[in-house]
Amino acid sequence: MRNGKKAVVVGAGVGGLATAIGLRRAGWAVAVLEGRTALERYGTAFGIHPTAQSALERLGLGEVLREHAVPYREARIRRPDGTVLAALPLERIERKAGRPELLISRPRLIDALLAALDRTGGAQIVYGHRLTDPADLEADLVVGADGINSAVRTAYFGRTSGPRAIGSVAWIGIAGFETGLYGETWGEGRFFGMTPVGPGRTNWYATVPEATTAEALRDAFAGWHDPIPRVLAETDPATWIRYEMRHLYPALPAFVADGRVALVGDAAHAMTPNLGQGACTALLDAEALARAVAGSAAAAPAGLPAALRAYDAERRRSAQRVAFGSRTLHRFVTARRPALRDALVGLLPGGA
């Protein structure tokens, strides 16, 4: 199976683990460097678009989706008083792709990726490795999957593109009951979303201009339609995750450099979560990169740079369009004067 080539993947998140799986399946020796001392089973749910489902299947993870993911078929956009503005286009996505959007918990997906990597014969995962100089890595291929603060990106692309705050705070959590009401509620400068994630649980997320405490978040959505206040009241704040929303700006001119370096996931195109495509784009990057370097031409020294250029051509424009669309949607959703926004949304299929 081995082709004599060695890859070092920096980062053991979704994109890094998926890349390592793809490269192992293509015959590469792989080492994964992870800055944390252990992978944290944090986070809530990932939406997996049909295109990303196909990528997971090509990486040998189709069974995990069939066993552990839940379909997302019915959701609405609402005003804070509960008035329905429009339906999310989930039915149209399913009709076009022949399969529904799926939701899977982040811990479940991470565990599945680790298990799949082990089935490939394993890759060395080095925990607690804080990368200081990526140029010192001895490998035929270096993959930066180290997130929005990527050391690999900084070393090879400089600091022109970097993390940029957008002035919003996001909170996510899991409620211990099924709300049966899913989608997003858009208010003035803030929104609240709910999705299924598994039996007896609901994934929720919220974005506000600022909220530093659980009580401040509850106050921000007091008086909104049921079950939003109940979700916040009956979910243990100790399990909530708060983070400052950021994205990568400006867009990178390339995802590859030096004939042996490639970026995937947030290292390449960190985006706001509004389209729910962060994990999907990372998975598509990983599978496309592994596929590009798997050919016989890539196995030769002169072939790898061409393979990386092919990866860049396939993924960069597509991923950056998604990132731009997500940031644009964030501006639209968090409008301070929502009357026009709501009127426009009401013109969509399924609108009020």
UniProtKB/TrEMBL annotation:
Keywords: Monooxygenase, Oxidoreductase. One of its GO terms (molecular function) is monooxygenase activity. Residues 7-322 form the FAD-binding domain. The keyword Oxidoreductase applies. It comes from the Bacteria. Coiled coil: none annotated. InterPro entries: FAD-bd, FAD-dep_Monooxygenase_BioMet, FAD/NAD-bd_sf. Pfam families: FAD_binding_3 (PF01494). PANTHER family: MONOOXYGENASE, PUTATIVE (AFU_ORTHOLOGUE AFUA_6G14510)-RELATED. This is Monooxygenase. It comes from Streptomyces subrutilus.
